[in-house]
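Q: Got a minute? One more chain.
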Amino acid sequence: MTILREILEHNQHFVENQEYEEFKTDKFPDKRMVIISCMDTRLVELLPKAMDIRNGDVKIIKTAGAVVSHPFGSVMRSIIVAIYELHAEEVFIIGHHDCGMASVNVESLLEKVTDRNISKETISIIENSGFNIRNWLRGFDDVSESVKNSVDIVRNHPLIPNDVYVHGLVISPTTGKLDLVVDGYEIKKS
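A: Always. Here it is, folded:
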């Protein structure tokens, strides 16, 4: 049986048995916060438990490395929608120790791309369009510095109001311990 078929079979039983009832909530985050977190599989259940978050409490945006890499990218758009349309009042950027983005080798990654039958010509077309694919794919050396950088991008964004607090933390993917990197209550928007 394929993964898709397993999921659909499980889903049929889930719906028939009304297991969804315990998850009912509305679209507005009860704790009025949005979290930008890494997509690491170790954080799927650990991060919410470590922060005492339940279904309906927060908006969670997952991205590689918990990085806000562009002030006008989709992550930033999601944060802005969470603030203005869904009433979020605080933003938490949460990176984690032992993050795969800290060890990304761009040249090796691009080799894997071509090994999967994406032509070097396609990569060249992207590069020749003026887009820096290597910069876009690169990771970071220090997770705390990466979190600080993402906090700065969000906090200093022209569409983020002064009354929204932006915090930065790093979580242990083993224990769930949170280390404070930026206390948004102590920093005013520039």
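A: The radius of gyration is 19 Å.
Q: Perfect, thanks.
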